[in-house]
Amino acid sequence: MEKKILFSGLTSTGRLTLGNYIGSLNKLLNLQAEKNNEIVIFVANLHALTIPLKREQLIRNVKENLKLYLAIGIDPKITKIYLQSQIKEVNELFYILSTLTTMGQLQRMTQYKDKAKKEANSTFKIPTGILLYPILMAADIILFNPDFVIVGDDQKQHLEFTRDLILRLNNNYDTDIKLVKPKIASIEEGSRIMALKNPTQKMSKSDHNKDNTIFLLDDIKEARRKILGALTDSEDKIYYNLSKKPGISNLLVIYSAIKNIPLSFAEKEFKNLNDYRKFKEIVADTVCDLLTKIQKNYHNLDDDKLQKNLDYNLKYLKNRANKNLDQIKNKIGLLF
Ligand code: TRP
Which residues are catalytic? Predict the structure, then answer.
C-alpha cells in the first residue's frame, strides 16, 4: 500500500509555546512513531516576513524553531524537514494560485479581518502579504500534494481555503491534486490549550500577561510558578467540564497530552485527590520534566548539526516539488 503523505508547518515567529507542543508538535511525534506514513514538515520563514524583523532576528527565530523541532524528538531521518525559502518552486505556484482566487475571498478570512480591524484603529498599515498569506499557505501544501495536513485549531479556515483552491485547480486544468484533509486534534486532545490565568481564552505567544503562557524554552522555575498560579475554581473536585471548570479542565488536558494518555485516564487518576494544590504540583512536575528534556536536547544542538539535518532530505524534496510543479504547469499549458 502506498504511504500516506502527512504535511505540517510552523510560522517562524519566534518562541514556541506549550500550546504549540500539545496542539500539533506532540501529534507529529506520535505519527512519526507509527512509521507507516511519509511526513514532511517545514518552517515558514516567508510567512514570517509579514511581521517585519531585522535580519539577525529572522535568522534567530528560524534556527530556534528548527532546533525545537529536533529537540522535541523529530528525527530528520524519518520526518523530512525543510525551510520554506529553500524551495523556490513555491513562489511560482503561489502566483498561479493567486489567479484562481478572488479579493473578496481573501478579505473574508478571519486572520485578515482581525488585522484590518487593528488597522482601522491605529497607524498600522496591513502589508499585502497578509492578504495573500492563505495563498502562500495553499502553495506550500499543494506543492507536496499531501493526504493530510496537521495543524492547530486556528488554521482550520486556511485549510478550507486550500481545499477550495484544489477543487478549482482540478476543475479548471484537469490536474490531479488530492483533496487534502486537515488533521486537527480534538479539544480534549489539546487543540486549544488555554491561558493559565484566563482559561476561557487561548494560550498565545503574544499575550501581554506573561503568566498566561508557557514557552518551551521558559526557565523551569518560572514554568512551575506559572502552573502553580493557574486560575481554577472553588469546588476542589478534579474532573473535566469545559464550561464549569475551564481552569481545571485545561490542566487535565495538559497533563494527559504530555503523558500521552486519554483524558478519561487522567480524570480517574485524580478522582479522589480533592486537593488543587497537589494536583497543580503534579501537573507542574509533568510540564517541567518535559521542558527539561526538550531544553537539554536544544542546548546540545549547534549550527553545524542543524545544517546537516536541514540538508539531509533537501535534494529529494526539491526534486519532488519541482516535479509536482512541472506537472501542474504542463496541465495549465505553461510547459509543453
Ligand atoms: N500558517 C501556519 C501557522 O501559522 C504555518 C503554515 C504555513 C502552514 N504554511 C503551512 C501549516 C502549510 C501547514 C501547512 O502555524
Answer: 115, 202, 205
